[in-house]
Write a structure and sequence with these properties.
Blueprint: H1 3-8, E1 13-15, H2 17-24, E2 30-35, H3 43-57, E3 61-66, H4 68-73, H5 79-95, E4 102-105, H6 113-123, H7 128-135, H8 147-162, E5 167-171, H9 175-184, E6 194-198, H10 223-231, H11 243-256, E7 259-261, E8 271-273, H12 276-284, H13 290-304, H14 306-313
Helix pairs in contact: 3-11, 5-14, 6-8, 7-8, 7-9, 8-9, 10-13, 11-13
């Protein structure tokens, strides 16, 4: 797979395609994604982690921002709590294959006078309404937002400037913040970043994935837990919004390349699929039973996360 195909696979949008092709032609290119420290790294996080690995293989230097201050501003815990989680998350990222990346703790550079001056300058250019709208998809308790949450997107813009990156990766829920960055960073002498957006996957129950709902698979889950959760997963006959198919597309195939469906001969026997599209078409045509699909996805996910599971269990 060439560098462009690696950079664009399993993305929702690239802003812009022309800029991506230009950045890919550079000898040196840097990309970053930021993560609020979380108690569990699950398949929702893994979508952007997989994309960073793709971009690393496409020639990018990868920077991971462990966004402890952002988590604090977004009411995710005390600074001590989020910093402790940040260190755990770094180990998780490495365990799932994101090695040779540069890990940066947000508070190590975001409290500098130069950084804060950039935040203040940009705060003069951005209305409260725009800041609020940019946070609606990512903010906690946004029915009653705090002033700290209005600082959050402005800091994210300054992160792009201070980390000296060409591109920013995030879920499509980050789009409004990234568009603010593209619009306003040039006003402080920083080139508008290339933005690469990945989809937001459903939880196993078909609803929004959330740690509080428990509708996710963690990268540290045991084989038994993965199998049990997948057996209970929502798996409608439709392709769209099917969390089992989403797991297959965004996690199993990118890491394994092929998937084998095991079943008795009377039900069609074993079949190996060389692409997600081929397997999706078979499921859509009714040639794969939902239970068989879940079994194949469970086995594939267990294999794909074996190294991460072994690493985390050895901690």
């Amino acid at each position: 797979m060439d560098s462009y195909a690696l950079a664009t696979r399993n993305t929702v949008e690239v802003v812009t395609d022309e800029e991506l092709r230009s950045v890919l032609s550079q000898d040196k290119k840097r990309v970053y994604a930021g993560y609020e420290p979380s108690g569990e790294i699950h398949l929702g996080h893994l979508v952007t982690i997989n994309k960073l690995i793709d971009l690393q293989n496409a020639g990018f230097e990868v920077v991971v921002l462990l966004a402890d201050l952002h988590a604090y501003l977004n009411r995710k815990g005390t600074m001590e709590e989020v910093r402790e989680l940040a260190d755990y998350n770094r180990r998780c990222f490495e365990a799932v294959g994101l090695t040779d990346a540069e890990f940066v703790m947000g508070s190590d550079f975001q409290l500098s006078p130069e950084y804060q001056l950039d935040v203040l300058m940009l705060s003069q250019r951005i209305t409260l309404n725009r800041a609020t709208r940019s946070m609606n998809e990512v903010g906690r308790q946004m029915e009653n937002p705090t002033v700290s949450q209005m600082v959050y997107p402005i800091m994210q813009m300054v992160d792009i400037a201070r980390l000296n990156v060409d591109a920013a990766v995030g879920g499509i829920d980050q789009r409004k913040i990234h568009m603010l960055a593209r619009e306003h960073l040039p006003s402080i002498g920083i080139k508008a970043p290339l933005c690469i957006h990945t989809p937001i996957l459903n939880g196993l129950d078909g609803k929004k994935m959330a740690s509080s709902s428990g509708n996710y698979i963690s990268v540290a889950d045991s084989e038994e837990t993965i199998t049990k959760k997948m057996k209970k997963a929502f798996c409608p006959p439709e392709i769209e919004e099917n969390p089992v198919l989403q797991t297959l597309k965004y996690h199993v195939f990118p890491r394994l390349g092929t998937v084998t469906l095991h079943r008795p001969e009377k039900f069609g026997g074993d079949v190996t699929y060389a692409s997600y599209e081929e397997m999706e078409a078979a499921y859509g045509a009714g040639n794969i039973h939902p239970a068989d699909l879940k079994g194949a996805v469970s086995a594939g996910l267990i294999e794909a996360l074996a190294d991460a599971r072994a690493f985390m269990n050895s901690e």
